[in-house]
Amino acid sequence: MTTPSFLTIDSTNRRVRLDGRDPAFFGDPNTVYAALHAQCPTFYWEEQKQWFFTGYDHVNGLLRDRRFGRQILHIASREELGMAEPTAHTRHFDAAEAHSLLEIEPPEHTRLRTLINRAFVSRHVEKMKPEIAELAHRLIDRFEKDGETELLSSFAEIIPVTMIARMIGIPEEMGPQLLKWSHAYVGMYMFKRSLADEIAADQAALEFAAYVREMIAKRRAEPRDDLLTHMIHTEHKGQLLTDDELVSTTIVLLNAGHEATVHQIGNSVRIILDSGLSPTELFRDGPATERTVEEALRICAPVHIFQRYCLEPAEIDGVSFQRGDKVSLILAAANLDPQKFTEPLAFRPDRAQAPNLSFGAGIHFCIGAPLARLELNLALPILFERLPGLKLADEPKVKDIYHFHGLERLDLKWDRA
């Protein structure tokens, strides 16, 4: 296994040097992951000053290990941990994240998740099939005759944001604005983010939260059959969600409910076209489609990193951690572990091996996974069926937001009838 020139691995001391903003890396992270698996699957990333895990069993185990969690300040103070105080210029972002399902631990996490889980279980989400299919066909109707399109803006972005907005009870015409807020918001997850990125994310959080509070007031005055009304009026052990909890939960559902799926539609189309495999065969029936979708999720996952704090002293793979230490789990790399997957860099929808970890595991397993899977299982076959001879019109460029692996644009062309 040849190590890429921009990657330095000291396997003896388990130290790695790598610029996370290097296009050679985020444009093709799988090559780096293969080198790490071969030489140093558990490593200290010098630039990030943190331990990272890529092995499937370690990542899967750490996602479930109760000695680790998403928050730490519920059991220790900033002073104890030597943690810096929050910055004033990100106060609105921090407030929006304060009660996020992704950032809290039981019992608060249990209470919030219980209140919204019913809306996302598979049997409920399945009822959205006709709406998703109708929307996919309607979008393709707009550009089919053109023989070309930029797929992210004309198709991939619209389906997930429309469906999650409908589910929550947000007007569909807010879709473009939700996308703008979300894109600015996730700038906080970039490596070496700039002050301008942080200010933009904070402004997006301020505006996003203000809009959600307006919607909460409207639903209190005029309840409807939607998830926001359900969250406002449903009790768990005699407790209702506070307005701050409602804001955080709604924002995380809107962001997580479309951001990753947008990327995954683009990633999946690209990997299928690059593979040279027949779309007709890949989507010949329901089971084949499911296998194709899961293999695409495995080999080009939309979310790469999930971080956790050590809550009590622990040793993982010979590395000792103390309370307050932060570890990073590379979900996308775990999906490429050669101990679990034969020819891990090959797109093979017929493989029957370990389940991918693209949606995480444990109590923070992605609550929207059934909806995301349904959207992918419906939208991709419709796209390839409606546009025969689909091919890349230009080489896709990967976005410089490493945590969220997706494309800047995806220009396609096809044979017009």
How would you briefly describe this protein structure?
The protein is an alpha+beta fold and 417 residues long. The chain has helices spanning 23-26, 29-39, 56-64, 78-81, 91-97, 108-120, 122-125, 129-143, 151-156, 158-168, 175-185, 195-221, 227-233, 243-256, 259-275, 279-282, 286-299, 331-334, 369-386, and strands at 8-10, 15-17, 42-45, 50-53, 68-69, 148-150, 305-310, 314-316, 319-321, 326-330, 391-392, 397-398, 407-409, 411-413.
Can you tag this structure with a few keywords?
alpha+beta; Cytochrome p450; 417 residues; seven-stranded mixed beta sheet
What can you see in these coordinates?
The mean pLDDT is 93. α10 packs across α11. The strands form four sheets. A seven-stranded mixed sheet has the order 1-2-3-4-10-7-5, sandwiched between helices. The chain has a single domain (8-413), classed as Cytochrome P450 (Cytochrome p450, Orthogonal Bundle). The chain is α+β, with helices and mostly antiparallel strands and 417 residues long. The chain has 19 helices and 14 strands. β12 and β13 form a beta hairpin.
